[in-house]
Amino acid sequence: MVSSPHEAMHRIFQEYPGLFSRVSEVLGIDIPPPTSATVLPNDLTENSPVERRVDTLLRIETQDDGPFLLAVEAQGKKDPRKTTSWPYYVSYLHNRYGALPVLLLVVCQDHTTAQWAATPITIGLPQWPTLTLNPLVAGPHNMPVITNVAEARKDLALATLAAITHADNPDVDAILKTLSAALRDVPETIAEPIAELTAQGLGNRPAAQQWRNLVAVDTSFYTSFMSEEIRDQGRAQSLLLILEARGITLTDELRQTITTCTDSHLLNQWLHRAATATAAEEVFTGR
């Protein structure tokens, strides 16, 4: 099952195709800045029953070295199947797109997976390898720890990717505070996707709630589903406090119903009823 961090680690390159220029610079790879980037179909299936999809595929144009293909894979853990699928992706793309150079970038959130992903994959005999694949890996071992607001503002896409790859860093609180502060003075159209990708990339880690708390300080910047989710959480907590203050006892089932409700209209309705209710039935009748 695809996780939300998995989606964020590669989708950020779809949202900000120019991001790879900065990532390659951080990783010490000399690649000219792109003049343009195009998101390509990620379906690599041939006329066979096996479906193969790379996470994100971009065609990047450069002024000096011409175009190349960037295949981005988000990797959350070691997966032995990648030793066969990754070489397939690269050779298939090389053939399909007229021998364009192909670069495979693997994005990870932990050191163990990053170390594994960086291991060259060799096909052939030990004494004569036929094909060797060298993935380029971005992860907590080489992505910058950005705790300076000015540095974060200079490249918000890179700061977001860095925050996602450092989701388990002991200093993640400082990293997220920096990113949140960097978003305060930027247009809503820029802040929203950054906030969403960050939340998605943090998944269900404790840092995800820290991020929601930071965003909740000023939800006027975020009118998307994330800000509505934050407001719903606030309504649920307010409802629980009102019921407790009125001495209304809740079953575990009702308490779970409240805390998991994502219907803003229904939560508001319960809040109004709770103000005068004397029993739980009066609040939740006809839920």
Number of domains: 3
Q: What's the tally of helices?
A: 13
Q: How do the helices and strands follow one another from N- to C-terminus?
A: HHEEEHEHEEEHHHHHHHHH
Radius of gyration: 23 Å
CA distance, first residue to last residue: 32 Å
- Segments where pLDDT lies below 50 for 5+ residues? none
Task: Compute the average pLDDT.
Answer: 84
Q: What topology, given as strand order, has the largest sheet?
A: 1-2-3-4-7
> Considering DSSP H and I runs of 4 or more, what fraction of the residues is helical?
40-55%
Shape annotation = elongated
Summarize the structure.
With 287 residues, the chain is an alpha/beta fold. Helix content is 49%, strand content 15%. The chain has three domains: 4-138, no CATH class; 149-206, no CATH class; 228-284.
Structure description:
The protein has helices spanning 4-15, 19-26, 82-96, 111-117, 149-154, 156-165, 172-183, 188-202, 206-216, 225-245, 252-260, 264-274, 280-284, and strands at 34-40, 56-62, 68-75, 102-108, 121-125, 128-133, 136-138. It is α/β, with parallel strands linked by helices. Helix 9 (206-216) crosses helix 10 (225-245) and helix 10 packs antiparallel against helix 11 (252-260). The strands form two sheets. Strands 1-2-3-4-7 form a five-stranded mixed beta sheet. The protein has a two-stranded antiparallel ribbon with strand order 5-6. The chain is 49% helix and 15% strand. The mean pLDDT is 84. It has three domains: 4-138, no CATH class; 149-206, no CATH class; 228-284. The radius of gyration is 23 Å and the shape is elongated. This is Transposase (putative) YhgA-like domain-containing protein.
